TrEMBL record:
Keyword ATP-binding set for record: no
Chief location bin: membrane
Statement: the UniProt record of this protein carries the keyword Transmembrane helix: yes
Pfam families in the record: SNF
Subcellular location: Membrane
Keywords, comma-separated and alphabetical: Membrane, Transmembrane, Transmembrane helix, Transport
Record's compositionally biased regions (Polar residues): 1-11
Membrane topology: Multi-pass membrane protein
Transmembrane segments annotated in the record for this chain: 14-35, 47-67, 98-126, 167-186, 193-214, 241-264, 285-307, 335-360, 372-389, 401-425, 446-465
PROSITE patterns: NA_NEUROTRAN_SYMP_3
Record's protein name: Sodium:neurotransmitter symporter family protein
Phylogenetic placement of the source organism: Bacteria, Pseudomonadati, Planctomycetota, Planctomycetia, Pirellulales
InterPro entries: Na/ntran_symport, SNS_sf
Amino acid sequence: ENQTASQHGSNEQWGTRIGVILAVAGSAVGLGNFLRFPGQAAQNGGGAFLLPYFISLLVLGIPLCWAEWTMGRYGGHHGFNSSPGIFSVVCRNAKARYLAVPALLIPLVIYMYYVVIEAWCLAYAFSYLNGSLMLGEDAEAYGSFFGSFVGSGEGQNGAAFRGESSLLYFVMITFVINFIFIYRGVAKGIETFCRYAIPLMVVCALCVLVRVLTLPADKVNAGLGFMWNPDFSALLDSKTWLAASGQIFFSLSVGFGVIVNYASYLKKKDDVVLSGLTACGMNEFFEVCLGGLITLPAAFIFLGAAAGDQGTFGLGFTALPNVFAQMPAGQFFGFLWFFMLFLAAITSSLSMLQPVIAFFEEGFGMQRGASVSLLGIISLSGSGFVMYFSAGLKALDTFDFWVGTFLIFVLAMVQAVIYGWVFGIEQGAKESSQGSHMRIPTVVQYMLKYVVPVYLGVIFIAFAWENVL
Ligand code: PHE
């Protein structure tokens, strides 16, 4: 084992304890919190969605998060930073590395479309600065601004490549920023970025929240009412439960090898239990308090029930700008909002790239420069593809369902079984308590072994039953 340790694994480590927590929280807090969460809630029962959502957080999200932190740090000591390497030492079986293939593919594929939406955020922030998004009260104007920017109209495929919009430039800038920080490495790149970006995000988001909630009270109440009006019949649909657990995984960045990779750069005596919990807590604050009260509610405040027909992207990028245009100092708040989204998205997309970098370096013995270039070429091609076919925004939603909900769900199940049955909860308890003032409660260990796989299995079978068979 020690020999493998010196052969594989980089010598990279996080700089400070708060830095790691901020990096993991940065990975977690992203477009998922501000756009995906309210979108999922609106489509799956409104206020009723919160019930399966919080059950998933307690039963799946936090327990699996602890399992990932624990296995990741363990893998790191044994000289591995990539999910395949970590899975193989955790399972004490070299073949287990194949189980980790989805843990590389999922973040890579999500990155390919996520970064394009990240670029939309940058473009929108910029458009507030130069005033081109202050289009008055005409709702249609925002739709056509978005449509021509993204090239999402009928027959518009490839618009960005024919120079019909500036999308291509914004995507390029976004790529360059991501790859500069990835190239600088875990502590100097990712950690440094997160330490500045996250406090800035909190300030921007709180400003916008105060602004939205101090709009005329009757409108605010009606808007929140539309959005959160519970439809309890949704609870009888297995898709609601699948969506809720998928959202928990996506949002916490749990279930696809991102946290395992980040945790592998911890020192042996670094705490995992409290850090994991803190990162989850920060994510929930951003998701429920900020995402749940700003993005879509604001859209509903001004547009009423009609906002519900626009889909997640329509809401975030057409309804919301209309809201900003109608509020005092909207140009300033619109800029703050989309700039905040852009920062939140970068701290997440960095965490999708790092697991793949670690794999290239560890699996193929590549140097930093080579691995970063190779990943750049692969992901840029993928994003080009996404951009070219952006005419069908529905396609993006469908894609996000299969990769961002369904596949993540499957991989989460694999991880729970590995932790509960192969690594073993006794070893898990011993390993996780090292360096921690807090222990993972024993009941959570048993939940990981029995409840999590059964819970996931039941939802999975019910979903397959209703939709595929
Ligand atoms: N958790 C991020 C968000 O909420 C998304 C993410 C997905 C991050 C996959 C890393 C890996 O936006």
